[in-house]
Amino acid sequence: MAARLLLRSALRAATTCRAAPVPALARGMAAGGIPTDEEQATGLEKIIMKAAKEGADPYNMLKPKGYAGTKAEPHLVPSITNKRIVGCVCEEDNTAVVWFWLHEGDAQRCPSCGAHYKLVPHALPH
User: Which helix (H) or strand (E) holds 54?
Assistant: First the structure.
């Protein structure tokens, strides 16, 4: 008896409360496919993708350009302040790091191997 009552009420609810068909979304499989990463990126991700298209590297994610380390072409060290600590591994197989302060201005030498480093100002991207 309870099953018959439940079945009748379900049938009555189904016939009287028919929901209107849901309209298709504007951007779906039928309307052009899955959106690309560029179309759905927002915020910082969108800024990074736009900069990557232009060839810029706003968050220093890519490998830096190699420099000779000479006085004419020193290693460039970005900094948001006027000084920064730099570590130099003077030889490839060396296990010790030579640490020294690099100040804004002319290129400075590593006290151990003589490689030149220059501090360059770096603005934060946001």
Answer: helix 43-54
